[in-house]
Amino acid sequence: MNTSVGTTARLIGAGLRALLVLTLVCGVLYPLAVTGVAQALFPDRANGSEIKDASGRVVGSSLVGQRYDLPKKDPEDKEEAAAPDLRWFQPRPSAGLGTNSINTRYSLIVSGATNKAGDNEDLVKAVTEAKEAVVADNSTAGYRVRPEDVPADAVTSSGSGLDPNISPRYAALQVHRVAERNQLDVRQVEQLVAEHTQGRILGFIGEPRVNVLELNVALKALTAKG
Fold it and tell me: What is the mean pLDDT of the chain?
């Protein structure tokens, strides 16, 4: 009996010691080491790839898309559709799996695609209406957008619904409208887009892209100078 009790006590003691050691290693030392390495080598990414404006205020992350809409006439009206603020470059459409009351800048509760087929009536209708809106919104007195000039990313959401980037082609399509709305020279805005166009990773991975938030932060700084 005494031997059995002693063995049980030793096993319990060994288990508690193992729990303590593993908790210390896996729950304290390892997270501290990973955090330390991340902060030392990749501080920007470790802190969420934050983007700051000219005043130093954090305005978002370069990894998560944002909408640029006008304030609603009635903030309490959930049925009122948000209208884009055409002073700014617009992102891809968002198409998440629901809405939430926390992140009102992007109406998503879960990141994800719509998973609708190419011939889905609702998808076809949404794309058609989005293309008409892009043509109407971006046509100016001296620049007319043709429907065939509208790229796919202007009328469809990404797989995540949170894509922070648009194609250079879509950015270029918005240049004349942004210049007109902000009373800027078209060449100034074109230069801004060129400066914020990123090429393929390592020269062959992915597609050229423009981060919308970074571009709009630069646009705000440019308009402030004027």
Answer: 86
